[in-house]
Amino acid sequence: MAAGGSRPPGEGSAGEAELRVMAASRLPPSALTLKQFLRRQQVLQLYRKILRAIREVPAEADRQYLKDWTREEFRRNKGATEEDAIRMMITQGNMQLQELQRTLKLAKS
Question: pLDDT for 20-44, tens place per residue?
Answer without folding.
Answer: 555 555 767 778 899 999 999 999 9
